[in-house]
Design goal:
The protein is of the alpha+beta class. It has a single domain, classed as D-amino Acid Aminotransferase, Chain A, domain 1. Helices cover 39% and strands 22% of the residues. InterPro entries: Snurportin-1, Snurportin-1_N, Snurportin1_C.
Length: 331
């Protein structure tokens, strides 16, 4: 069934423009009309709207707190009724909660200065919620996948009343690690309205300074939590990102590109782009790769010219010395 679904994903019909579950428009067998201009226009409108108004998160946070306050204990009289009710009604409070990407189709002119690159390991996207002594992981669909203790705020019985946290992660089954891409809430404080760099730096400082033990396996932390470092989008950095050792021990799935002014929003957004590593030369040729090649070529040409000029100078000096010697001998 999984093979069938994956084979059909490339031809899926969706209202989500540049859906990463479908083929990239530039690599599709059927070359549809380019949606790059529409992606650029949608980016522009979102950024303009963001500068004029603030995103309202009250309802989302209320839902989170209500869910965290639910008791997991039921009386014997109500258990059968509760199980019957759940068969017909399964609320998905975290459905479409994660911020999702689009294929990076239209590379803006200010790409190098306006975006961060975030390498992504192979794994499954996961929303991790720690609260009231439990840590739960949800799939993108909002379905709860698993529950366990952790060292995150409110994530185990010793930190029951220490608030809650929400993290955007990738779960790696290979090494039993949650790789944290983004921080949504920390100690009851939402940072969804903060810009990308603030969220990334806040995540880095919390994980390294407050709970560095979360990167190690223990009785209260059966799975590792590691933050994924971010990089600027200069040609040199992108080249090293692809060709040098990765910041994690599992294979690279692709690279997410976050606009520096983006807030954390729910669902797909044109402010977060996605590319597989093999797509870099095709998509980033004009803005990054070719620019880097030109810089390297220019540097080589300059060095070659300097070498040739130096050789010519040495040759002229030798000729002058030879002529002077002949004149002296003739005298």
């Amino acid at each position: 069934m999984d093979d069938l679904l994956s084979s059909l994903s490339g031809v899926a019909v969706t209202a989500h423009p540049n859906n990463p579950h479908a083929e990239h428009p530039r690599f599709a067998l059927y070359k549809a009309k380019s949606s790059g201009s529409s992606q650029h226009e949608r980016r522009r409108k979102i950024l303009e709207a963001r500068r004029e108004a603030r995103y309202d998160l009250i309802m989302h946070l209320r839902c989170i707190e209500e869910e965290n306050a639910e008791s997991s204990e039921f009386s014997d009289d109500n258990m059968e009724c509760e199980q019957e009710r759940r068969c017909y009604f399964r609320p998905k409070k975290y459905h479409n909660f994660l911020m999702l990407s689009e294929w990076l189709v239209d590379v803006p002119e200010d790409f190098a200065s306006s975006y961060f690159a975030l390498p992504c390991p192979v794994g499954k996207r996961s929303l991790v919620v720690s609260a009231r002594g439990r840590t739960r992981a949800y799939a993108k669909s909002g379905v709860k996948v698993t529950q366990f203790p952790s060292l995150l705020p409110g994530g185990n019985r010793h930190t029951y009343n220490k608030g809650y946290a929400l993290l955007d992660c990738i779960w790696s089954e290979t090494n039993k690690t949650y790789y944290i891409l983004d921080l949504i809430v920390w100690l009851n404080q939402s940072i969804m309205e903060c810009e990308t760099m603030f969220r990334f730096e806040w995540l880095k400082s919390r994980m390294l300074e407050e709970i560095p033990e979360a990167a190690q396996v223990s009785r209260l932390n059966p799975y590792r939590f590691e933050h994924v470092p971010y990089y600027d989008c200069s040609p040199e950095t992108l080249r090293s990102l692809i060709h040098e050792p990765l910041p994690f021990s599992v294979p690279l799935d692709g690279v997410l590109f976050y606009h520096k002014e983006s807030h954390y929003t729910h669902g797909p957004t044109p402010l977060v782009g996605w590319l597989k590593a093999y797509m870099f030369p095709e998509i980033l040729d004009d803005s990054c790769v070719i620019k880097l090649m030109m810089e390297v070529s220019s540097s080589k040409n300059k060095n070659t010219k300097k070498t040739k000029n130096k050789e010519m100078e040495v040759s002229l000096e030798n000729q002058m010395e030879s002529s002077a010697t002949e004149l002296i001998d003739g005298c």
